[in-house]
Amino acid sequence: MKSIADILCLISDKLDGILRVTAGFFVCVMVGAICLQVAARYGFASPPAWTEEVARYAMVWVGLLGASVAFKAKFDPALFHIPDRAGRGVRLVAGTVRAASVLIFLAPVLWYCFYGPGMNTARSFLARSLVTKAETFDMPTIFVAVTVPIFICAIFIHGLAQISAFLTHKNTSSDKD
After folding, report:
1. Model pTM greater than 0.90?
2. Euclidean distance between CA atoms 76 and 169, whole angstroms
3. Cβ atoms of 52 and 41 closer than 8 Å
């Protein structure tokens, strides 16, 4: 039977693969929309209005999903780098500070995705996005806004996998690179 650390690392690896493919898809969408915008503007002097908005929304998906991929690969910005040769205690303290920082910053954002002021779900970020439409085409902005809780949950899962791997002396796939 697999340990909890193995299961968390497996979930983290599979989720990372899915998010990488999804981010890659949205990079293609973004580049395609920008190319169409440029070709229509300079080739036909008549760019469609929706291409700029599609490119912007795709950029949001790429940016947030890319942030979770960077976190998994430990390529996210850091104030200082703790070398692998540092003692286990130093790495444990550094990892604890990193985990606490991520939790302190992202937990409230995740909370307000689902709850607004006064614990009112109707005033949450996602609920408001459900009734807001895109400017140039009939699409609720929830399809863009849902990226926020997806990327936060992914980072939390990656963080749990990294913590459990460290505590059980296992290497995650990003540590082997």
Report:
1. no
2. 22
3. no
CA–CA distance, 12 with 141 (Å, rounded to integer): 28
Residues whose CB is less than 8 angstroms from the CB of residue 165 and which lie 6 or more positions away in sequence, other chains included: 5, 8, 9, 171, 172, 175
Better-scored residue on pLDDT, 1 or 96: 96
What are the φ and ψ backbone dihedral angles of 165, each rounded to 5 degrees? -65, -40
CA distances, 141 to each of 1, 7, 41, 52, 133 (Å): 43, 34, 26, 15, 6
Q: What is the pLDDT of residues 41-74, one digit of tens each?
A: 999 888 898 999 999 999 999 999 999 999 999 8
Closest C-alpha among 18, 35, 24, 15 to residue 58: 24
CA distance 164 to 90: 17
DSSP tag of 133? B
Give the C-alpha separation, 36 to 32, whole Å: 6
